[in-house]
Amino acid sequence: MKILFVADGNLKHRGARYHFTYRRLLNGFIRNDHNVYFMSDTDTARCGNLFRSSKMGWGYCNEVFIDTCNNFRPDLIVFDKGEIITDESLKQVKSLLPLVRMVQYNVDGMFSRHNINMLKRNIHHMDATFITTAGNILKSLSHSNGIISFMPNPVDMSIDYPKCHERSDQKYDVFWSMRKIEKSRKNEMNPRVEIPLFLERRGKVKIDYYGMNGKPELWNTAYYKAIENAKMGLNLSHSYLGPDNVHKKSTDEELYLYSSDRISHYMGSGLLTLSTRDNKLEELFEENKEIVFFSSKEELLEKIIYFKKHENERKTIARQGWEKSHACFNEKLITQYIIETTFGMPLSEKYAWPTQTF
């Protein structure tokens, strides 16, 4: 089928964010033999005015979107957030192409009110919405015009190329990278800062971290070079921070099966992935066979020290997690699921994730 894929192509970053989820899904649709046309909404908007402002170019972007739909005549339109495309433009396209299906996907947490509001913005135009959180919380987005479903974070062999599970010569024991957060005493209360600093200060493990404690964010090829140079990856997903920047524990429903997309980068690259128990990821990956979980920073430190001493066990679990990820959560399977669910087809696979729709 013909698929129009609308997302932020990040041209201003000049290839530094090539590993983002939209690239993986694009690859999946193409590798499943679909004719895919990509439109970068943000970059198109910037082209629509002399100041290269995305907001000033929203009107121009919507004109281009409608023209593209008219010229390409897609069977399916896939949106990554799609905040630039207006309600009126979606109505026009539905009138122009009455049989077209529209879907949106989202990889951010359901504990974010901003994220929920963004999802709801155009949801009544969407035949399906796919979110990397599962369970009953998706009922809050249900509507009569379409369905809501879970999708896992996709791995992609062409992007997640390292095979850390095959090596023992890495410089670091643990790798951690996050969006930059300013160095301050308040921010040290954030578990995504507190836990890496705890590991560093204990001095028993070599940790390579970025985006915190004065170290810059890590993007581009350097990101995967750093992954290659470690044996284990710390998977700490963002959760709610209150207005005073103090960490507040999200609810079980908000966290169910949610993870930052770094889990696909880690497991797809053969890192032994160390993840918190809060997200119930043991329903996707078998504990101590494909992934390692921890409930406290003390337990985490203990397990890292253990796997430092038991190299073969580290490599075995990391390899089995790598195999599971690429066999069950790859870009082709996830895009196949998106199409089957959106068009009401019988599922062609016994997918390794919850396929309940709301």
How would you describe the overall organization of this protein?
The protein has 358 residues and is of the alpha/beta class. It folds into 2 domains: 2-154 and 330-342, 3-Layer(aba) Sandwich (Rossmann fold); 164-328, 3-Layer(aba) Sandwich (Rossmann fold). Helices cover 35% and strands 15% of the residues. Helix 1 (21-31) packs across helix 12 (331-342) and helix 3 packs parallel to helix 4. The model is unreliable at 240-247 (pLDDT under 50).
Q: Indicate the CATH class of the largest domain.
A: Alpha Beta
Compute the CA-based radius of gyration: 21 Å
Give the distance, in angstroms, between the N- and C-terminal Cα atoms: 25 Å
What overall form do the CA principal axes indicate? globular
Q: Main sheet: which strands, in order across?
A: 2-1-3-4-5-6
Largest sheet: 6 strands, parallel
Low-confidence stretches: 240-247
Based on secondary structure, the structural category is alpha/beta
In the CATH scheme, what's the topology name of the largest domain? Rossmann fold
Order of helices and strands: EHEHHEHEHEEEHEHEHHEEHHH
Total domain modules: 2
DSSP E strands, number: 11
Number of helices: 12
Average of pLDDT: 94
CATH superfamily of the largest domain: Glycogen Phosphorylase B
Summarize the helices and strands and which ones pair or pack.
Blueprint: E1 2-7, H1 21-31, E2 35-40, H2 41-46, H3 58-72, E3 76-80, H4 87-96, E4 101-106, H5 113-121, E5 128-131, E6 147-150, E7 172-177, H6 191-202, E8 207-210, H7 220-228, E9 230-235, H8 252-255, H9 262-268, E10 272-276, E11 292-294, H10 297-309, H11 311-328, H12 331-342
Parallel strand pairs: 1-2, 1-3, 3-4, 4-5, 5-6, 7-8, 7-9, 9-10, 10-11
